[in-house]
Specification:
GrpB/CoaE, Beta Polymerase, domain 2, 5 helices, 5 strands, NT_sf, GrpB family protein
Length: 172
């Protein structure tokens, strides 16, 4: 028998955001101590956007100049597990800590690279409340359903918001 498909479960946004803010402050301090000074450590994802629905996890983007990527990759790899469900390139790597409360995802990305989309997307959601309404509708439509279908729809939504073609991997 195969594994059960992962299902999208939405968390209460205000409680999730509060827990994520507290954990972000702690993790940011830890990362500041481990990573080069050039690393930009940003709270991204649903918990970084007021009123945005999400899974209740904390997403952090670590944006670095290309010359710092290898050092940061090694440092993060010593502390966090690689995310097997995420793409890995020469300028992007994702890490997870499922035991953290809330669960933690860290996206290491080279500044200006094709996958450096997390902060831009957060800025768009902050600037355009109508996008949050549409994004929440997408999430509600996929709640309780297969995570793979949600991720594909989410990718297309982010790509459209940022001006990438639908199905573009840069939005995953």
């Amino acid at each position: 028998m195969g594994a059960e498909p992962e299902i999208l479960r939405l968390a209460e946004p205000e409680l999730s955001a509060r827990a994520a803010r507290i954990q972000f402050a702690r993790v940011r301090a830890e990362l500041r101590a481990r990573l080069p000074a050039e690393a930009e450590i940003e709270h991204v994802g649903a918990t970084a956007v007021p009123g945005c629905l999400g899974k209740g996890d904390l997403d952090i983007a670590v944006r670095v100049p290309s010359g710092c990527f290898a050092v940061c990759l090694a440092q993060l790899g010593q502390r966090y597990a690689g995310n097997p469900g995420s793409v890995r390139t020469t300028d992007f790597a994702a890490f997870i800590d499922e035991a953290a409360d809330p669960p933690l995802g860290i996206q290491l990305v080279v500044l200006g690279s094709v996958l450096d989309v997390f902060v831009r997307f957060r800025h768009r959601l902050h600037a355009e409340p109508g996008l949050v309404v549409r994004y929440n509708a997408l999430k509600r439509a996929h709640a309780g359903r297969c995570m793979a279908a949600y991720r594909a729809a989410k990718s297309d939504f982010i790509a459209a918001v940022l001006g990438h073609p639908p199905g573009d991997e840069t939005a995953r």
